[in-house]
Design goal:
Elements lengths: L1 E2 L2 E2 L18 H14 L7 E6 L5 H12 L12 E6 L8 H14 L12 E3 L9 H25 L11 H19 L3 E3 L2 E2 H5 L6 H10 L4 H11 L4
Parallel strand pairs: 3-4, 4-5
Antiparallel strand pairs: 1-2, 6-7
Helix pairs in contact: 1-5, 1-7, 5-8, 7-8
């Protein structure tokens, strides 16, 4: 997407830990996860975490921890800036950002450190659908325009000129994949998807052994030499 002469690539991570339901193949799920790591080896210039107005869910907190805090945990690389974008109508406020200011401490107390006043990383970005009522649509149009301009201003201001990688070698990538996947398994056990069932139960996830990693990496096109290094890294011998 072009903006003021610069190209911005937006990478959506939806689906990494939000299955549609039923049992998902362990290998297929992990394969997509590792492919995401491989395709984004250069890392990111900016991370935008999107939420909906209202109650903070367990899923929100788990995704935030996994995809923001843990993603850069296995290499000595400072993570890129993080922005929290909250979507909704915010009908009780004259300006959407008033809602974020009012609820800032709630996010901070739940561990979203970017919401602190010093970092000022939480922003209300709302794009209501077109209304049939012309008077209401005039209000919505102004709201959409304000949110669009504010979003681009924030992205332009906080986006780094160079991406920060979350791994530098194939063994680091495999190690990161195993680390994050095992965290995902642990977190999935906390997410309810029905009576007496968790997301882990629904997906049948278990901890991944090295053979699963190796089989998937082969399909991804890695050489035997790289796979050997990844195996050593997995067992902490590299």
């Amino acid at each position: 997407m072009m903006h003021e002469g610069y190209r911005y690539d937006f990478i959506d991570t939806v689906g990494l830990n939000e299955p549609d339901g039923g049992t998902v193949s362990q290998s297929d799920a992990l394969g997509k996860f590792l492919m995401f790591l491989k395709n984004n080896a250069k890392g990111f210039n900016l991370i935008i975490f999107c939420m909906r107005e209202g109650r903070l869910t367990v899923q929100d907190k788990i995704t935030y921890q996994l995809m923001i805090k843990d993603l850069y945990s296995q290499v000595k690389t400072e993570p890129p800036p993080v922005m929290l974008f909250v979507g909704g109508l915010f009908v009780e406020h004259a300006h959407p950002q008033d809602w974020c200011a009012k609820n800032r401490n709630i996010f901070v107390n739940q561990g979203y450190v970017e919401a602190t006043a010093d970092l000022d990383g939480i922003h209300c970005i709302t794009f209501p659908a077109k209304a049939q009522n012309p008077k209401l649509e005039a209000v919505y149009m102004e709201t959409r325009s304000e949110s669009k301009n504010r979003a681009w201003d924030l992205i332009s201001k906080n986006c780094l000129s160079r991406p920060r990688p979350f791994y530098n070698t194939v063994p680091e990538m495999a190690s990161l994949g195993v680390y994050l996947w095992n965290l995902l398994v642990k977190y999935a056990a906390k997410i309810p998807v029905g009576k007496n069932r968790t997301l882990k139960d629904a997906m049948g996830w278990t901890f991944i052994v090295s053979k699963d990693i190796m089989d998937i990496l082969v399909k991804m096109g890695f050489t035997k030499e790289n796979l050997a290094s990844a195996a050593l890294s997995y067992y902490g011998l590299a």
